UniProtKB/TrEMBL annotation:
NCBIfam families: T6A_YjeE (TIGR00150). The lineage of its organism: Bacteria, Bacillati, Bacillota, Bacilli, Bacillales. It holds the Pfam family TsaE. It is found in: Cytoplasm. It comes from the Bacteria. Belongs to the TsaE family. GO terms for biological process: tRNA threonylcarbamoyladenosine modification. One of its GO terms (molecular function) is metal ion binding. GO terms for cellular component: cytoplasm. This is tRNA threonylcarbamoyladenosine biosynthesis protein TsaE. Its main location: cytoplasm. InterPro entries: P-loop_NTPase (IPR027417), T6A_TsaE (IPR003442).
Length: 156
């Protein structure tokens, strides 16, 4: 399976990179974000929100599990860190099947409930504030999205 890598040196770079991805997202897209605490999952989501033309500030939904924002498309931002039971059904399907874009931090914690077709993104700490972002598309929609995204002129 093809994967895609990108390194950022600052949180601003992570935001800009995610913003560019956010501009390409379509209704029903599902993205998972994995990585240690402080890896940049919420920071990445802030960038996605910019790309979706969301004006409100995006903050971590750790305590509410799901926050919804409205821009060019709705954004359903989930942080399932506090979901204690992997199989606990909190109505996730309605979001996955909805008209918005779903972004799930710590998605493996609800692994059984995730749609098969999705874009998995892993953020890794590297020295000096750098982060390595690794994209693993699952299914043709996300394979095409990654091809388009990673072949765009990076100077945009
Ligand atoms: P998570 O949601 O994964 O727990 P956050 O996005 O909340 O992580 O926090 C990431 C922290 O790391 C922020 O304080 C951010 O400013 C900082 N940071 C430093 N360098 C980077 C980078 N290259 N990319 C993303 N965040 C970075
Ligand atoms: Mg977070």
């Amino acid at each position: 399976m093809k994967t895609y890598d990108f390194i950022t040196s600052t949180s601003e770079e992570t935001i800009q990179f995610a913003e560019r991805l956010g501009r390409l997202l379509q209704p029903g897209d599902v993205l998972t974000l994995e990585g240690d605490l402080g890896a940049g999952k919420t920071t990445f989501t802030k960038g996605l929100a910019l790309g979706l033309e969301i004006k409100r500030i995006v903050n971590s939904p750790t305590f509410t599990i799901i926050k919804e924002y409205h821009g060019r498309l709705p954004l359903y931002h989930m942080d399932v860190y506090r979901v204690s039971d992997e199989g606990e059904d909190l109505g996730f399907d309605e979001y996955f099947d909805g008209e918005g874009v779903t972004v799930i931090e710590w998605a493996h914690l609800i692994g059984e409930q995730l749609p098969v077709s999705r874009l998995d993104i892993h953020l890794y700490h590297e020295p000096d504030n750098r982060r390595r972002l690794v994209f693993k598309p699952k299914g043709s929609r996300y394979e095409q999205l990654c091809e388009e995204f990673f072949h765009e002129d990076l100077s945009n």
